[in-house]
């Protein structure tokens, strides 16, 4: 069922802040979500399936690496990317996560830090969805603190022809089991560097993580590297230190600020529709003051969060977006989206715990969104550091 927004769902007339291209792009992605995600997502979620045909369809839609220029990438604005993320996550966080891992993480790493040969080899096919990418940063013992990663790549040989031997473990790596290429971050004698590892490379073992209560229509994996031999061409030459992965993480965090509001809007609209038609004590739920208060509070937070995301997008397109501003957007909008999903569920009553309605599925997914690309605590500390001038990450 489509829950496309109506005028009553935009009290502040935020649509008037968007230009024609932005509105057309949003409608195109919204139509895709209505046609391809909504009719299938309950089954995909329940069966824990990520449909393999979606990457090519998303490539055709033009949302893979859509903020990147050249090499077959769409070259759209930050606001347009945000609007696409919002509409995809209104369908499901797992589908938006695919777009984020592919474009904001893996493709951005290659586009920003790769050699010309690496860009030409991978980016056009990734933008088309013909090739799936993965981004391996998090480790079993290094989540919020990537500087303590234990994965290590040692030099193998001498001179410019020297390769690498990689050992280590990664966890919660999106798409790794279906990826054609993996961007892997590891310590070296010269600090943290990035490597491109094609699928099928000997010594790489990928194990999908099962028994998930969240992101069930998405793929996350454990990855082991055991004496993996890499040629000199595997190194991302431009990435040196944590600035490499953090640049990519900021791209993903930006998209999340938009995406979370899509999930929140879908929850709100399903609750509103239900409240209008569900009869209790002889009249619709929507006619009760307590229900109207819930709907108003949800709507206000969605409008404020969308306005925040749009402001961040305009700053990004102007080249002025700062990391602490991204943290503000990610922290606020995901936190509010979870609260909205849970409140929407209360309007649905017992029916709300089923996959016939989206709020509890969104709430479960958003627990993952809340954790990845920086937990609430990490973004609170980023903002605390900005406000006080005192970094409090280490006690």
UniProtKB/TrEMBL annotation:
Q: Which EC class does it fall in?
A: oxidoreductase
SUPFAM superfamilies per record: Acyl-CoA dehydrogenase C-terminal domain-like, Acyl-CoA dehydrogenase NM domain-like
Q: Which residues form the Acyl-CoA dehydrogenase/oxidase C-terminal domain?
A: 241-386
- Name of a matching Pfam family: Acyl-CoA_dh_1
Give the UniProt record's GO annotations in the biological process aspect: fatty acid beta-oxidation using acyl-CoA dehydrogenase; fatty-acyl-CoA biosynthetic process
**The keyword Ion transport appears for this protein:** no
Q: What is its EC number?
A: 1.3.8.6
Domain Acyl-CoA oxidase/dehydrogenase middle residue range list: 134-228
Q: Write out the catalysed reaction.
A: glutaryl-CoA + oxidized [electron-transfer flavoprotein] + 2 H(+) = (2E)-butenoyl-CoA + reduced [electron-transfer flavoprotein] + CO2
Quote the InterPro entries the UniProt record gives.
Answer: Acyl-CoA_DH_CS (IPR006089), Acyl-CoA_Oxase/DH_mid-dom (IPR006091), Acyl-CoA_Oxase/DH_mid-dom_sf (IPR046373), AcylCo_DH-like_C (IPR036250), AcylCo_DH/oxidase_C (IPR009075), AcylCoA_DH/ox_N (IPR013786), AcylCoA_DH/ox_N_sf (IPR037069), AcylCoA_DH/oxidase_NM_dom_sf (IPR009100)
Pathway stated in the Swiss-Prot or TrEMBL entry:
Amino-acid metabolism; lysine degradation; Amino-acid metabolism; tryptophan metabolism
Q: Name one GO molecular function term.
A: flavin adenine dinucleotide binding
Q: Where is the Acyl-CoA dehydrogenase/oxidase N-terminal domain?
A: 21-130
| Co-factor(s) | FAD
For this UniProt record, the keywords arranged alphabetically read as follows: FAD, Flavoprotein, Oxidoreductase, Transit peptide
Which family is this sequence assigned to?
A: Belongs to the acyl-CoA dehydrogenase family.
Can you say what this protein is called? glutaryl-CoA dehydrogenase (ETF)
